Amino acid sequence: MNYRHVYHAGNLGDVLKHAVLARLIDYFKRKDKAFRLFDTHAGTGCYDLTSAETQKTGEWQQGIGRILAADMPPAVADLLAPWLGVVRALNPDGGLKIYPGSPLLARNLLRPIDRLTLTELHPADFKTLSDLFAGDHQVKTIHLDGWLALGSFLPPKEKRGLVLIDPAYEESDEFERMTGAVVNGWKKWAGGTYAIWYPLKDARAIRRMHETFREEGLRDVLTLELTAGKSGPDTRMLGSGMTLINPPFTLADEMRVVLPWLSGVLHSAPGAGWNVTQIIGE
Question: Rounded distance, CA 147 to CA 181, Å?
């Protein structure tokens, strides 16, 4: 319960997570039917980049700060427009003072018919989150452990949607708990899309998660990686990955356009790169 995302808002991990999240929402909006988005570890929903906490680490300067300052090829700009459009709308005077967490990014991209369910366990962060969305009938905020939420709220009545999973990875058994919760959630809602974010620091834990998915019979699993350098268990985070279950068929090709450019802009140490791999077929 010590982790506070405010110290890491807008960093290179958020770059990958939010670029992908915006593409997922864009895809779901192509059909007329409503969908629901679950965020299992929602945080506060929005971050002040001028606060003492964000200034202490300054991680956003090596993440979203670099992205907004760089010249962007048209093909990349088109794919990142949903995400960056929200960021720019929250900073109408230019510069970068406010950064949307996944909840606020998603809320700004939803249509009136879509719904957002947010769970957060940290008491102070939940209070901030619930205040942010007070009175919004499209958003439900719940003070609950994210792993319990996966077991309680699936499948949604809309029958369409996605689950964003990005815990703090503070606990030594976090990958194991997450893997079990995802498998149980998938068994309840095999047709949902699951987007799992993680730092690229514990390769063994990531491999075990993927092996379990294979053993449990999950299908159509895609992995994405974005690194600014090589990181490991004893280094600061220089890269992150996402594992997606039932991703849109368009996502892999989109990321093959976006990730090389992002990696070049975020490069800060040897070992920077990107990867798109379908690890389990449909």
Answer: 6
Active site residue 166: yes
Set 39, 114, 145, 166: catalytic member: 166
Structure tokens belonging to residue 246: 């039932």
Answer for the pair 54, 6: CB distance below 8 angstroms, yes or no. Answer: yes
Instruction: Report if pTM > 0.85.
Output: yes
249/34 Cα distance (integer angstroms): 19
Element holding 106 (H helix, E strand): helix 102-109
pLDDT single digits (tens) 31-80: 999 999 999 999 999 999 888 777 777 788 888 999 999 999 999 999 99
Cα 245 to the center of its chain, rounded Å: 14
Domains of the chain plus CATH, in order, are 5-280 (3.40.50.150)
Write the burial class of residue 49 (CB in 10 Å: 0-12 exposed, 13-18 middle, 19+ buried).
buried
